[in-house]
Design goal:
single chain, 829 residues, mainly alpha, 60% helix
Length: 829
């Protein structure tokens, strides 16, 4: 009997088998196993990132050119393995090792290793299909690694291609190196062609210095960077002669990426920093070790919120950009304030000095807050403008609260307003930025000023003040005394809260607080049920009214990302909540629909149920009957119950029957859609009854595939999932890894229950178990041995060869395969 195979199964199963075999056999037998499984090893080496280290070591140690070439040509081969191949000095591998790879730095390292190990007297390098003709005659990007090649013709071609971009001293050194690699006639011909055809390699007069005694080494090591336009060095690790860099910049202007790299050096001269800044403002500002003072606050530099604050903070830490300069020179003001950490003592002093002239003038502070988001000047200029306007207006500190003042051309009726005036109209981001900037100023003000401003703080600002750990007890007490209930609303707006805080706010039984909590706070599903059902702290349903704001939040919930939040109100018994849910989505299960109607009946009576049915049932259309957005049988039954005096009791019995475990198990057997509906609609999976039912009549693939994805799935159904051949390479098998990490499955379970055997090996030896290859290597081998999989087959090359050859066609589990192979070997002995 053979296993039904997907197109990829045979190759992937064989790869997993070969990987397992090389982990199992004795080190001394790896060579024999490689010879037995030559074709399989060749294919596996093509996927070098999955080849076991034992196989790679055998290939490196052997003289097997075919297998070494397979490893060299692998696109994702590791740099260490490729460099080890390069150090073998085999010309047959040269072209494969020097071809394009995804990581260009790896290619550079490998190419350098090839050139270092190559023997120029070996004719294989110059064979028609060898590396030397391929480099010289092909259209390649010549690299600095080739400047120290042992092949004269390769060095000559490299100098012709990139000589004009090389520093003079370095070029002259390499031309002298070429003279040592080729004969006098060849070198003279190169010099003649360089003068006549190549304009002396872009350096007129340079070749006349060939015979001069070198004054020293060919320039500083940092000039590698200039010669190649790239460098793989740490900042400060190279010694750069900046005079030579300047000379090269005059002779042949450096590319912008090279300049940007150079400005990272601590001693990079200012003129080069300015030149880099001229080509790449943002890159230079982000990477330069130091910027000239006039560039550090360039108002034309784009203030990218992803890096601009760190840019300013880094320069503050370097000690050359003070908080006073940030406040006085950087614009707009909202950006400057975002860059300053108000908890840092130096910054706090500077900000306190900035706002000191404002005193406790509430109108002046209102004008600062109002103008901050849209103000284009610096923070210091903003304060100056506000004070000038206050002097002209002459308004008293209480005028702003009455709305009698129009400071600086805007209308701050009170700071207790939504800050959408900040920035461009209707821009939430501008409002948030303005509020954050205002809070930076507020926190630096003296305590008596903060106390004076507390009555004017709006809810979002109260939220941020209360959420800040730097807010002291005095300010918190002042806020509570002044704002009372609004403090709870502000706390409810905090997106990050400890569970005890959420429970405290829920126990207030305040409908407005509940609405804000549902919108902003990290509630659990049980807490969302409590809010939507109006349950008070004593457990009474419907005691806390549902506000229009709460319904508005429900109407805006995304059905893609937050449908679960919406469905927590399904059994609330509140007709307004349920009506909104039914207008947005359909209730598919009879258990959920009947529970929903019973809850409404219990809370609002039969009239509430009738009104809901009339409201959510669309009008009949031609060829279609009118039906509400839930199970048609439930709709028919509830209408009949509404006509009976004991209708509520009848509906309760119906709901109990629909929610009975046997009925839910029957729903589950319908497939993955039914399970998804049960989950979304709050119907729990009756796991004990389902496990018992599957023992009588097994579940089919659809339900099992959906159930195993759940973190609470029991072990028995997880084993069913293994028997249904989980696909290790579609991402659907992540549940196997998750179950092993939770301890509900073991690797032995995979070996004993997953069929076919190739799939079991793919799961245990492949990517789905762990993303870390080294960790994978450590624990998979250990667990396979603990599971008896490796020990059962032993370390015999013969038995593993038979197992791998049988693997693609074998339909049973991995342990069954190992038992079969062991029996075959026993018969042959």
């Amino acid at each position: 009997m053979s296993v039904e195979r997907d197109w990829w199964y045979e190759g992937e199963a064989t790869h997993a088998g070969v990987a397992a075999a090389f982990r199992a056999v004795r080190p001394g037998d790896a060579e024999a196993l490689k010879d037995r499984l030559r074709a399989e090893c060749t294919r596996l080496l093509g996927k070098a990132h999955r080849a076991p280290p034992a196989l790679v070591d055998v290939v490196l140690a052997s003289g097997d050119v075919e297998l070494q070439l397979a490893l060299a040509e692998a696109e994702f081969a590791g740099t260490a393995a490729l460099c080890a191949l390069a150090r073998l000095g085999r010309p047959e591998l040269g072209r494969a090792l020097c071809t394009f790879r995804r990581n260009d730095w790896d290619r550079a390292e490998v190419m350098a290793a090839v050139m270092a190990a190559a023997d120029p007297t070996d004719p294989g390098w110059r064979a028609p299909d060898g590396l030397v003709p391929w480099l010289v005659e092909g259209d390649h990007v010549f690299r600095h690694e080739l400047l120290y090649t042992p092949f004269g013709e390769v060095l000559a071609a490299t100098l012709v291609r990139i000589g004009s971009r090389m520093p003079p001293d370095l070029l002259l050194d390499r031309v002298r190196g070429l003279r040592e690699l080729v004969g006098p006639a060849e070198f003279a011909d190169f010099v003649r062609r360089a003068r006549e055809e190549e304009d002396e390699l872009g350096h007129p007069g340079l070749l006349a210095r060939i015979d001069e005694e070198p004054a020293g080494p060919p320039g500083p090591t940092g000039l590698w960077l200039l010669a190649t336009g790239r460098a793989r060095t740490e900042r400060g690790s190279t010694v750069i002669d900046w005079d030579l860099v300047r000379a090269e910049q005059v002779r042949n202007p450096l590319p912008a990426p090279v300049l940007t790299r150079l400005v990272m050096e601590p001693d990079c001269p200012e003129d080069l920093v300015r030149e880099a800044y001229r080509h790449d403002r943002a890159g230079t500002a982000r990477l330069a070790h130091r910027l000239p003072d006039d560039l550090s606050v360039d108002p034309e530099l784009e203030h990218d919120p992803k890096w601009w604050p760190e840019f300013i903070r880094r320069r503050q830490r370097c000690g050359w950009l003070s908080a006073e300069r940030v406040l006085a020179e950087i614009a707009p003001a909202v950006d400057a304030l975002r860059c300053l950490d108000a908890d840092e003592p130096g910054n706090r002093r500077a900000i306190a000095e900035l706002v000191a002239p404002l005193g406790a003038d509430r109108a002046a502070w209102a004008a600062v807050y109002t103008r901050l988001g849209a103000y284009g000047g610096s923070s210091a200029a903003l304060v100056t403008d506000v004070l000038a306007a206050r002097t002209v207006s002459g308004a008293g500190p209480d005028d702003i609260a009455r709305g009698d003042v129009v400071p600086v051309g805007v209308t701050p009726d009170h700071l207790a307003r939504d800050a959408t005036h900040a920035g461009s109209p209707g821009s939430p981001a501008s409002a948030d930025a303005a509020r954050a900037g205002f809070l930076t100023l507020f926190r630096a003000a003296p305590q008596h000023v903060r106390d004076a401003l507390v009555p004017d703080l709006d809810l979002p600002t109260l939220r941020d003040v209360l959420a800040s750990p730097s807010t002291n007890a005095a300010t918190r007490a002042r806020i509570t005394a002044v704002h009372g209930r609004r403090v709870y609303l502000a706390r409810a707006m905090c997106a990050e809260q400890v569970p005890e805080s959420v429970e405290e706010l829920l126990d207030l039984d305040d409908p407005d607080v509940n609405a804000v909590l549902f919108r902003d706070a990290p509630l659990t599903d049980a807490q969302r049920v409590r809010v939507l059902a109006g349950v008070d702290r004593h457990g009474e349903r419907g005691a806390v009214p549902t506000t229009d704001d709460l319904l508005e939040t429900l109407s805006r919930l995304s059905l893609i990302e937050r449908k679960r939040h919406l469905m927590t109100g399904l059994f609330s018994g509140d007709p307004r909540v349920v009506r909104l849910i039914l207008r947005r989505t359909r209730v598919h299960t009879a258990a959920a629909a009947s529970r929903m109607l019973v809850a409404i009946w219990e809370r609002g009576g039969a009239d509430a149920v009738r009104a809901l049915l009339d409201d959510v049932t669309p009008p009949a259309r031609q060829g279609r009957t009118a039906a509400p957005p839930f199970d048609a049988e439930v709709a028919r039954y509830v209408r009949e119950a509404l006509a009976e005096p004991d209708g509520l009791d009848r509906m309760r019995r119906y709901a109990a029957t629909a929610g009975d475990p046997a009925h839910v198990v029957a729903e589950i057997r319908r497939g993955s859609d039914a399970i998804r509906y049960l989950t979304h609609e709050g119907i729990p999976i009756p796991w004990p009854e389902l496990v018992a039912a599957r023992a009588v009549r097994p579940l089919t693939l659809g339900p099992v595939d959906a159930l195993v994805q759940r973190p609470d799935c029991p072990r028995e159904i997880l084993l069913d999932g293994l028997r249904f051949r989980p696909n290790a390479y579609t991402g659907r098998a992540s549940w196997v890894r998750d179950s092993i990490e939770r301890g509900t499955l073991t690797v032995r379970d995979i070996s004993a229950h997953c069929a076919p055997a190739g799939m079991a090996l793919m799961l245990t030896m492949g990517v789905p178990i762990t993303k870390d290859p080294q960790e994978h290597e450590r624990w998979i081998v250990r667990d396979l041995r603990a599971a008896g999989a490796i020990d059962r087959l032993g370390d015999s090359v013969q038995t593993w060869t038979i197992a791998i050859r049988m693997l693609p066609e074998f339909p049973g589990t991995l342990l069954e395969l190992l038992d079969t192979v062991a029996a075959i070997v026993a018969v042959g002995q």
